[in-house]
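Final report, closing paragraph on structural work. Over the funding period we assembled a curated collection of sequence-structure pairs, and we close with a single example.
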Amino acid sequence: MRKLLLMVLLIFFTANISFAAKIPADLQNTINNAFPNTQFRFDGVIILPDTTLYLPLFPAKQLEVEKIDIKSTIPAGKTLKDKPDAVIFNNNYVLLKVITNKDGAKTLIAPTDVPDEIRNGLLPQDMLVPKGLEIPETLKGIIGNLDISLAKTSTLKTNVPQVKHLNAQTTVTPVPELKNKTFYVATGYSKNIQVINSDSKAPAYALSQNYVPNCIKGYKNQFLLVTSFGSTSLNVISLADEEVIKEILFTSRPDEILTDNEKNLAYVSSPEDSSIYVVNLETMTLSKQIKINGMCERLTLSNDGTKIFYCDKKTNEIWAIELDNNYMLKDIGKFPNVSKIAFTNNKLYITSRTKNHLAIIDYDTNGLIAEVEIAEKPVDMLAYKNNLFILSAQGNVLQAVDTKTDEITDLIYLNTNGFSTNINQIDGTNLAIITDTKASVYCVLDMTKKLVIKASAIETPVRAIVVTDRVTKINK
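Its predicted structure, as stored:
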């Protein structure tokens, strides 16, 4: 019965993309003209660059107008740049500013004579209500079915035990590219996601979860996407709110996450369901279910976003999904104990964890180009320009492969005395972070120079890490 209910919910969410609030494009442009880089969150909340919050009221009947203009404001005679308490537009949309009263409580303007546009408007019905928001009695009609009790829920933020340092330095000096960054770390055993500033060894605090996180991915420095062991949902955490802003339900446990920031899509695997689900990241809703062969793992997305590769954990068969070719499946062949798949220059690179070798396959012909012996226990790979970096846990070593000649050109020792886990590119740079689940250290790799330029202490093991710009918090 529970699975049937989840399936009904899944169909509902997939079929109702419009369920998520969508501010009209011309109204977004008007607001952006006054406040460039305004964030229009998928649940409808509008966040100005200085974190001022506006809540939109969707009209019962939207008027079609040639040009968006302000009809009236509260107080009267203001412009958008004045950030008035209420803005009524000529298409009947309304913006209500979240204000703080003398008692420190968050509320909205309570005019004695409520304009019809406000009285007849409705808040987005899937909105994450700002914490502590109190709706004035004169505005109760704008709530609809929205659960305002959410406003009083506690944040995910929780304290972490602090390690006592005896004459030991607790700060680190990050490389310039990591200055003012934040690390979100899943350990693999704790239910908490550790939040660590890049200039510190220790977590500042943590974000609590109901289950141990499995895979975490970031999206545009605004959200964390989280799958967890034992959970059949994908949690979307707003980093500004530090709240679970959306829970996307699946019929079976979601596992790995791939993100395509250019297309605003995420691909979420569900091995038990023999499916890969497509999530629209602009609306945070399921948009498609891709049925596949076998139980998928080791997912890889091509750089151009046209292909997904995976391994069937039962048969060791490698498959390609051609996303731009009606999701056609292509059988690549069987490979033993696959630990990672990479794709570059129209070639597949496949590592075997136990055989300690790298197979190189021509994608068009499925022909074996070469088979190369590599360091023991390869755990991850990262393609960057014409180089492929292979991370091996045994000996904590990186090997660089020239993808033009397919020859190993460099051997880079990490000297961490730990057990390496992942290699992650830092967005917009030629640097990558190499994490470790045993040693209390992470390494920063310059992929152009093929050189480890920094090793920094970190007081938590790392199963998965997301690096973002430091996010300004709201709802304080």
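The radius of gyration is 25 Å. The chain has three helices and 38 strands. We thank the funder for supporting this effort.
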